[in-house]
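Our platform keeps sequence and structure together, in a single record for each protein. Such a record has a labelled line for the sequence and another for the backbone structure tokens. Nothing more is needed to write down the fold, since each code stands for a local backbone conformation. For reference, a complete record is included directly beneath this paragraph:
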Amino acid sequence: MDRLSRRTFGCVAAIAVVFAAAPAWAQSKSAAAAEAAPANGFIDLIKAGGWVGHTIIVLSVVAVSISIEHLLTIRRSTLIPPGLPEKVRDLLRAGQVAQADQQCKLQPSALGHVLQAGIGELDGGWPAVEKAMEDAMAEQAARLHRKAEYISVIGNIAPMLGLLGTVMGMIEAFSMVAASQGTARAADLAEGIYLALVTTVEGLVVAIPALAVFAIFRNRIDGLVAEVAYCAHHVFAPLRRAAAAPVTRRPAPPAPPPVAGPA
């Protein structure tokens, strides 16, 4: 009876030891698995993208920098300085052409450039002024659109780089299959496929916001350019009306009566 009790007690003690050690063993096993599993943090994704992913990250930084610069420069107060159209209009009405040109130089902007072009052709009349302003407006619109085009270029290049990383990752995966003569395991192919997916995601994450921002800036530029054209024509409205007004000619004086000759 005592022997049976001792055996029973030993079995219970052994079971208790096993149950007590099970959590610690499971915890150590999960920690080891966590160390062996690849991390999925943001920094790890950047590292996994390789040089292609690093290039995409650099493009994203450039796109953000250009967007911030455009937010500060492509706005109404920068392209159309407050008070400039009224000042130039009043000076032109007063016949102070040199002062009007100097006022445009003191406030350099898209509107000031267009007004300067028109003032320089005042001697040629309204047709010459209109043609000069149209040319200056086209130049300013092209300059603003060229600035925004850089964001569009980044938005188009980023997914292409992501596709390049995808192709490189698949090549790496299939090279493992070729090297192992078809006996490669899934773990051997995981690294190449992982690279392919990471670069694709990075390219899309950069391209989608970049193209959206480009569309916003393009619409803003079109609206501001139209407003600059309206302000420029408003400044030269008196000259335009004077050119369109019909010219009234005075009637010619009556011809003198014929002088009668000697009888």
